[in-house]
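Fold this sequence, please.
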Amino acid sequence: MAILIESLGSATRWLDVSNIVYLAGAIFTALTAGWVVYETRAVAAGRHVKHFLLSEVLACISAGICVVGSFGAIYYGSLVGRLKDDSLKAYEMSAKVEIARANQEAARAQQEAGLAKSNAALANATAQRAALDKARIMRGNLALQEQLEQEKSARLQIEARLAPRTLAHQQQLDLAGKLRKIPPQTIEFVVYQGNPESDLLAGEIAWAVQQAKFKTYWVGPVGGSLHGIRLEYAGGEDGVPHEVAMVFYKLFRQADFYFSGPFADMLPLNKEFGNFLLAAPGSAPDPHATLRVVVGTK
């Protein structure tokens, strides 16, 4: 296409030159004709002799210039026309190629737009599935967490149920300090056979009682069973026995011990208290005991 355009430009320039040459030949022809007319009249009038050679030479030169200009105009005019036609055809072909390429680009763009739309729909569906999966996982995690919390709570309950009861040293000191505010009394402890955990707890309570200068009196181990700790004292809710019983009551509440009582009804040990206390052979309560602490199983 570039070569064709360059050729067309060159042919156009030569066509212009040919036209100029032709125009120059036409001017010389007109001048020659004028000279011939002038010379013919001058000769006829007898003013001077006719110079045939000069007129013929000028006529030949003018004719030659006209011939060269005409040939150049005809040749280069035809060449310019042909080159223009070729240029137009090349332009039309190039335009068709460009249009076809543009149509291909448009089709490709439309195809890519359709693909992008399809990908967007797929991404949206994937995002929805991911959201559903996330919600399902979260529900599963919550259910699992709840199950773990239940298992942990059950395990802690089992551990708490199996762990031995005990009084911390500070709790023993607190019990002794509160009992020191009360005149020394006698505390009767009752334990059961075959329960080392109850024996240990009763010993810790008795140590605190002894630190307060209270006397301890032991009965047992006795037969039967009791769940928790039972408090018994003689008399009503007025007086020292009740005050002592309330000190123990508050201690057991703080230590989270399961207990029965306090009961202001200290019965003789030779009678059955429900299903938990039977007097051991040869054992008898201290008739001067202010409070009876019966330590059963946990």
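The helical segments are 2-45, 52-162, 169-179, 196-211, 240-254. The first strand starts at residue 186 and ends at 192.
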